[in-house]
Design goal:
Blueprint: H1 5-8, H2 12-28, E1 33-37, E2 48-51, H3 64-82, H4 85-89, E3 95-99, E4 102-107, E5 110-118, H5 121-130, E6 136-140, E7 167-171, H6 180-190, E8 194-199, H7 202-216, E9 221-225, H8 231-245, E10 250-253, H9 268-299, E11 305-310, H10 323-343, E12 348-355, H11 362-365, H12 371-378, H13 387-396, H14 406-418, E13 426-429
Parallel strand pairs: 2-4, 7-8, 7-10, 8-9, 10-11, 11-12, 12-13
Antiparallel strand pairs: 1-5, 3-6, 4-5
Helix pairs in contact: 2-3, 2-8, 2-9, 6-14, 8-9, 9-10, 12-13
């Protein structure tokens, strides 16, 4: 299976970064960061050197498994030459594993690309600045082949550890909705992950990233800009991630565009706008996120990755005035179940979370234009004296007697990541609004 030529043709540094990251995960046993260095002109001592000329075709396309084989063979040779202790240590249960902190990719005698490797974004930037190619060492207790995706024994109280040191992407819902999107990003960062925040509004993502980084005292959040319905924009997003960290462990698609209109009155333009963001945009995120995950799999076949869509209760039941939104969400669940069947071959889990009524969304709670204000004015209910009382009235109709919150969605997210035996599922988080789906 070849590279997707529309996205990666001749961007070799981007294309091979996930394969390098997978090799590092498989070698050292943790999801480190692989950063592309466009400025290094000479190969540093102790670097892992890989010549990819034999696997390039005349059209300059790359075959994933062939490239992965070249990297695996180069690492084996490097281990014998640079870290010979690894040969005798291979039979030991407790040992020190050694891996390269620098990978130099050549085409014949020309340096094509250079990558630096370390545990997190701050340390890898320092290593790249210092041109420090000293060998990475990690004490391990079992071979990766003896474990299932480095699985640990987790309890519910330890669930947050499932994202520690991982690299995650959260796209959408950050600038329009400081609820679910922001809760996801803050929680992932607080739990020790490195999070890319991708939204159409760069100013808002920058604001949130700066606040998180100041609180965490490290680079925990990186803001990026994306238009999810634009394929070139999504391509650039994943290319940037590949050159910054080498790849991802968790990809969360949180796009949600609402238009409250009757199916008899909604314009085709409005319908297509909702569909472009919620359905086509999700497809593009799934496609390019899946490609990145598959490349990591080539060199880290035991490492599980997660693609999770934040869907909606409207993906499970229809809606009287949100037909375009419901249609896009129903369609997305079809994509999820189909992709889950295909991508499980690459140890990629694909699932969805379906939040219920999220009344903290500005669409509902805005004090001037929110639905609670509009409905209070246009369709008064006897005994309801304010928009706040109207909200309480709506919440009373929910079996759990309250609306969904960002924290509710975060708990479901951590469950799906922890649960290794679940794919192709849509998890309702609705307080009982939707049952038995």
């Amino acid at each position: 299976m070849e590279w997707d030529k529309s996205s990666d043709k001749m961007d070799i540094p981007t294309a091979i970064a996930p394969i390098i990251r997978g090799l590092c995960i498989n070698t050292l046993g943790y999801p480190g960061v692989v950063m592309y260095d466009p400025d290094t002109e000479e190969i540093p001592p102790e670097a892992l050197i890989v010549d990819i000329e034999p696997v390039l075709t005349e059209m300059d396309t790359l075959h994933e498994e062939s490239v992965a084989k070249v990297f695996r063979e180069a690492y084996t040779a490097w281990e014998f030459d640079i870290a010979p202790a690894g040969v005798d240590a291979a039979i030991q249960i407790n040992r020190i594993k050694q891996g390269p902190s620098c990978v130099a990719v050549k085409r014949k005698d020309t340096l094509e690309a250079c990558y630096w490797i370390d545990r997190n974004l701050d340390t890898v930037k320092q290593r790249m600045a210092d041109k420090n190619a000293s060998i990475l060492k990690e004490k391990v207790h079992k071979d990766l082949s003896e474990t299932s995706s480095l699985r640990q024994e987790f309890s519910a109280a330890q669930r947050v550890d499932v994202v520690k040191n991982k690299v995650a992407l959260v796209s959408g819902g950050i600038s329009r909705n400081r609820g679910i999107g922001e809760a996801l990003v803050r929680s992932l960062a607080r739990s020790g992950a490195l999070v890319f925040l991708a939204d159409f509004d760069r100013t808002e993502t920058q604001r949130l990233a700066e606040a998180i980084n100041e609180r965490e005292k490290r680079t925990a959040a990186v803001p990026l800009q994306v238009q999810v319905a634009d394929e070139e924009s999504v391509q650039r997003l994943f290319q940037t991630i590949a050159k910054t960290t080498g790849g991802l462990d968790i990809c969360i698609s949180n796009e949600d565009l609402l238009r409250a209109e009757s199916v008899l009155e909604q314009s085709l333009e409005d319908f297509q706008t909702v569909t472009d963001v919620n359905y086509t945009g999700f497809f593009l995120m799934l496609k390019y996120g899946g490609l990145m995950f598959r490349r990591q799999y080539r060199t880290a076949p035991h490492w599980k990755t997660d693609f999770i869509q934040i869907n909606s209760k409207f993906g499970l039941v229809g809606s009287q005035r949100y037909s375009a939104n419901a249609g896009s969400k129903f369609g997305a669940l079809g994509l999820i179940s189909s992709a889950a069947l295909e991508l499980v071959a690459y140890n990629i889990k694909v699932n969805a979370i379906c939040p219920g009524s999220f009344f903290d969304h500005p669409l509902w709670s805005d004090p001037e234009q929110g639905f609670f204000v509009q409905y209070f004015k246009s369709a008064p209910i006897p005994g309801i004296k304010s928009p706040a009382e109207l909200r309480a009235h709506y919440e009373a109709a929910i079996p759990m007697k309250r609306a969904c919150t960002g924290d509710d969605v975060v708990r479901a997210l951590y469950y799906l990541i922890e649960q290794e035996y679940e794919t192709g599922q849509a998890i309702p988080v609705t307080g009982g609004e939707v049952m038995l789906h």
